[in-house]
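Note to self: keep these together.
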Amino acid sequence: MKVAIIGGGPAGLYAAILLKKQRPSADITVYERNRADDTFGFGVVFSDATLDNFEKHDLPSYRRITQEFAYWDDIAVHFRGTVHRVGGNGFCGCSRQKLLLILQERARELGVALQFEVDIDDESRFADADLVLLADGINSRFREKYVDHFQPEVDVRANKFAWMGSTRPLDAFTFIFQETEWGPFIAHAYQYEAGHSTWIFETDPQTFERAGLTGLNEQESAARMADIFGWFLDCHKLLTNRSMWRNFPMIRSKRWVKDNMVLLGDAKASAHFSIGSGTKLAMEDAIALAEAMQNAPGIKAALEVYEHGRREEVEKTQHAADVSLVWFEHVDRFWDFDPVQFAFGVMTRSKAITYDNLKLRAPDFVAEVEKSFARHVRNGGFDVDTSKPIVPLFQPFRLREMEIANRAVMSPMCMYSAKEGVPTDFHLVHYGSRAIGGAGLIFTEMTCVSRDARITPGCTGLWNDEQEAAWRRIVDFVHGNSAAKICLQLGHAGRKGATKLMWDGMDRPLDEGGWDVVSASPLPYFPDSQVPRELDRASMNVVRDSFVAAAERGQRCGFDMLELHCAHGYLLASFISPLTNTRTDEYGGSLENRLRFPLEVFEALRAVWPSHKPMSVRISATDWAEGGIDGNDAVAIARAFAEAGVDLVDVSTGQTVRDAQPVYGRMFQTPFSDQVRNEARVATMCVGNITTADQANTILAAGRADLVALGRPHLVDPFFTMKAAAWYGANDAFCPPQYLPGKDQIFRNSVRDRQDLEELRIKAKPKTRAELKAEATKPLAAE
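Structure:
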């Protein structure tokens, strides 16, 4: 077997090592354009879990690597004159040059041929090779040569960064957030060997320009950074090595394999340096490829196994990197945060670390976070304990004169179970049980303002006396048997109306019994959907007045809060999105014009809704489609509604057009809530694949939302909130007297269950290499 590897970085060298171990007789050659000891940057960083992987796959190189590593447990966050240290992280740093030399030496030991200063631009010279690995880095010429095949997507990010080094010793992975006269600068720094540390400097393009960095050479740039961070560098020099400022390219390739050629490492996909995963991904690519080659019946099958089996893990890492880099790109959003909350945001930015696992590894730090959050609540007028506070999820919140006992919210979820718009006993049990279950606030499903405003024949409404009486019965039960507040969500289906029940075909048009539908423009949702009638001014008046009439009925029912549905492609959302609004009158064109009618409806509602009761608006913060609403538009939309008197923005996304391409994942819509809250400066509620109280605490403590809405968890567990209260010891959680014995029992049991789980996790967690090294070097106690 003959293997040619183009690129002598970590991906290419480690692949050569593993493949040669499998096939000692194979002819494997690595071709590198640079000299053997040439390298960009200074250090690389790995987690303990990554080193475990290396240990499993090649013990000799693992041992040599770990002999050279600097180990640390702490992450230190420097911000506005404070420093917060968070332990238990398990990271290791190593010289990039030494890593390459170790891998080169190991490859030679195994019989791999290494050729340096050989520039390969034509793979035809390897026509006799069975396998060609394209590991030629982030600027891969082969990825570009076959761009139509590999179909890479390159997203060049806005922030500028430069990679430098220093002689400054560090005992933690260090983030420094530095305010300057030009704007914020960020340093990501870690020690990789005695007397040497890596420093990556980052800033936004506007600050970069104002600081006069454009056109400076390496030495001049280093001098400017030394001036800015000199207080921390403590007279230590900054070192350069091709340390020019540049923009980070996020790369994703649709295909990784062409014939017998395969992309590895940064050539196929990149991950932002803020999560330190570039070299990790490259070497783990090599592991995945070697495992595929070991187990598959032939090279073609192995490459297929590699591509399909490896892609999910790479995309998960890239997603975490994406979320992390966006946090750093918009660090100015959080600049006025309390420093401990800011540090918590740094630690949890990529969603990989959450409230509970951070509390397990750094309990003192999380205790500070809890106290900071409680102080903020106390400053808002609540008499809460700030010395031994309860977790954020169970801190109270106020909107106008409505106070809610906790920040767990049951999402608005259509049940499709009404009879001619009338809520039934199903709805009484549905809403009543979730209210008794402890949620601070529950939302009704989208309640339609007229018969022809319904999504389906099973949707609830509020346009007649029978519906009003049924809703009043539900509201009275909630108020009489729980501490929950209840919000009425009003909406109009627009072009998504006259469709089947969800379980019969979501958004599919009715086969019979339908009604005429309307929208901002005459664009059907599906090609075979009913073509909606474009609303004229007279029809807009009718729609507005039907909203007002429903709101007046809602007030008579006793609802505590009112929400206007302007999301998910329904009628008002169809005005807001340019994908569904092609009007040429004063209600189309610019965002200001597209918002005109939704704001008119909101202002009409605000005028009749009691001034002491809050109102919210649900928006789609992105259409997940080219040319549609994006996060920046969402901020403008939120500001416009805030000026009109909205108290809370319910931040959802998508469902506007059928060809949308949402990026799902845990808490996938939370970044949009974060952006709206901290740029528009309005209270937000986040929603979207939030499944645990731990996630809710993480979101709230990091300042990404003020309320957390959970949908599916509440569907299967009406007592989700009560169970969470027991788990976190929120003893003041309301419980009806009929259920108090059950509350007493679960609160007692949860104390023991939580202690047992934490003990198990602590025992199961292996010691970090930093801890093991510290124990190994500790002097023996005197006898």
